[in-house]
Predict the structure.
Amino acid sequence: MKETAGTTGLMFNEPLLWEKGKKGRTAFSLPRRDVKQQPVDENLKGSGPDFPDLSEVDIVRHYIRLSQWNFSVDSGMYPLGSCTMKYNPKTNERQAAQPGFALAHPLLPEPLSQGVLKLMSEMEQYLTEITGMDATTLQPAAGAQGELTGMLLFYAYHKSKGKPCSKILVPDTAHGTNPASASLCGYRSVLVKSNDRGVLSPQAVDEAMDEDTAGIMVTNPNTLGLFEENIKAVADIVHAKGGLVYGDGANMNAVMGIANMGDLGIDVLHLNLHKTFSSPHGGGGPGSGPVCVRKHLEPFLPVPRVVNKNGKYELAENFSDSIGKVHAFYGNVGVIIRAYSYILSMGPEGLKKASQLAVLNAAYIKENLKGTFHLPYDRPCMHECVFSDKLQEPYKVTTLDMVKRLMDYGFHPPTIYFPLVVSGAIMIEPTETESKEDIDLFIESLKAIAKEAQDQPELLHAAPRKTKRRRLDETSAARKPCLSG
Amino acid sequence: MTSMRYLPHTPEEIAAMLKAVEIDSLEGLFAHIPEDCRRKEALNIPEHLTEWELNDHMDELAGSMAVSPEYKVFMGAGSYEHYVPSVVSFLLGRSEFVTAYTPYQPELSQGTLQAIYEYQTLTSRLLGMEVANASQWDGASSLAEAMLMAIRISRKKAVAVSRAVHPLYRRVLETYFEPTDFEIRELPYLSDGTTDLSPLKDMDDLGGLAVQSPNFLGCMENLEDIAQTLQNQKALLVVGFSEPLAYGLYKNPGQCGADIACGEGQSLGIPRSFGGPGLGMFATKMKYVRNMPGRLVGQTVDLDGKRGHVLTLSTREQHIRREKATSNICTNNSLCALAAVMYMATLGGSGFKELAQLNYDRSEYLKNVLARAGFKLPFSQATFNEFVVEFPAGFKKTYQRLLQKKMIAGLPLVGFYPELKDHYLLCVTETITKADMDALVQEIKK
């Protein structure tokens, strides 16, 4: 086997910020004072925050050392299922950092902000086209807020029909955010079981669907990496009872240019620009969660909406059926710029090719690892595949042990213990930006770990060994929370 | 199309991989998708651009925007121009922070985790609260989450919100509350620019009261008096903000008795980017921590007993509790939180105070010259770096003329407060010099 990237290096220790520094240091250059100091209302005056004083060198070493304790896409393969950890192109960073965008005030008079308004308007059109829907809002700040926006649209739609509903169908393969978002709109989640093929069956949906149900939330491809092959029949059943179909677009990376969500019967769909459209995850945000809708839901979209009036872009508020605002301004424009830059760099063929190669990489991994790991649904997969630790059970080795060992080989673990329908799930999403040789090395590493599970299980129980910290005590962290220093 | 630089596969590799999966073409990978679910036509979006073409295109779009230094923007209103030190932008660009995911695997994420733990700590200290979460999306959704949290804790069904809270935050709050049976009541503002508390005496069923300080009119609320007024009520006091630098000069929410302090942290080292991404800062008392939305990082030890950090108290969250979660929020705004903590650390306690004082002094200077020039300052309450000016009727024309001179003379308030005709909200930070202010006043007087 080729040498893997995993190794120990010279990793520095670094204390907490306030354990460093000396009173009187600074890392900031204040502008020259050109006005006199003014008196402050004594009743309101405070003493200022208790922050440590540090020099610029203190700051630089602190964060460089911290950064070296992180694994990132730029350091290696990060095959987190359902997270689409694809490479984040550097030109996107250049574009978003342009002063014209980065310094722009959101309440500038419209004639002075035509450039960004044009970009937003075009971005809405591109996303509408890529999803095969009819209209798009860029306002939601993240995928979860996109879901909430989607549920607010459901609510507004049913209210306009004079038919408030109290329930929503959520498949057992859904992300936890789905039911959490729905309950913010007062919808009680009704679980629909996927069938033995890992997808929704029209019968199960038919049995659960009634007039008091607002609709269904579907992720397609679903979290098992499988295309919901009955989606059209499911949508017909839901629509026949007056319900709507929500599409969780977290897995859109599998179907760009391959399937139109609108044609599948989806009424509302959210996207994660930080997944499919390559904006960086940033260690947990900022993301962006645009929502695309079919015609009948367009009147309810958040305001303001960007409209083009004779070649001039405006922010229009006059949509009386709108659900209102979900963001103070227009969404995470800085993230939207990166995704826009990505779409233009890729073009129509590039996006489709990305989806094809994402699926090819996943299919290749599935093919090469089945037999080594238990494959609960042995069917053609889309952009991710899901294994379990069933074959390792006799050696008392779990999914957690194996992925912790994978760290020592220089890979980030896949998503684990999700979806919940697979016990001990290992959910692998390689994305299209991993090359064949890296994928081969990943496969070989996992095979080597499976062998270790058999021969030296203690190695796995003690893993990881090469990281900055070994396994952390999460139980006592939760029992006696220490949340600030 | 020549090969795309983000797609590493050569035709030979594609062929080999297809062979391994026993499929004859890339299209064949999708053969299991029902025929009527497959897209027939190509995507109708522009042909791909080279990096050269993309740069030209983006330069043109960005070049049409009115930004400093060409324009002098005397406008805050929830989005502030502060100088971002080079050290912050440089460190924030580290790939290891930028291209990592949420720190689910703590052994590989100690960098992000320690940084967020430090962010939580400095945020708690800045706001004077016991515990801060790992951050949320922005100030507006944080206010909505805070009011939902107040309702969860108090088990009441109504909240009161000052009209001096950012009008756009209030609209987001209304959107979040629309499908619920919770009621929002508005409190008017007084002639000095602070919130009128008198209606509270007839509201003994409140779950929460939200004010903002400095408020949207730039005025500092008398937070201690408000806390006092609420003392005999079950309602939680939620103190919002859009300019946390003010707490370098004024008392912070915690000192004044806030139960929840939340707001927008964009002014702490985050570029304005046309309004997003921002930073939802959110802090509360320890006794409410299990009702708090959002991620939390906690300190613990590893198998060798060494100090480390992990995501914790996740049983409140959607991926464990699903529909019973305290919120649907998945992640934080990690990179923005990182920018903020880097910025706070770069300033340090001493620098933070000095910078706050300078913002105050410069805005007081503009206030004074405008007052001397005969313009009215309708609200007498103390302000931080923003204040309202009432210009003579017909100032709109002057405002347009100033735009031609590349000066943006604040935000017209009439769109948000119909009664404040000819009132403008002006903002001065450390990026605006005395010379800029003198030039503005000169031009206004013309």
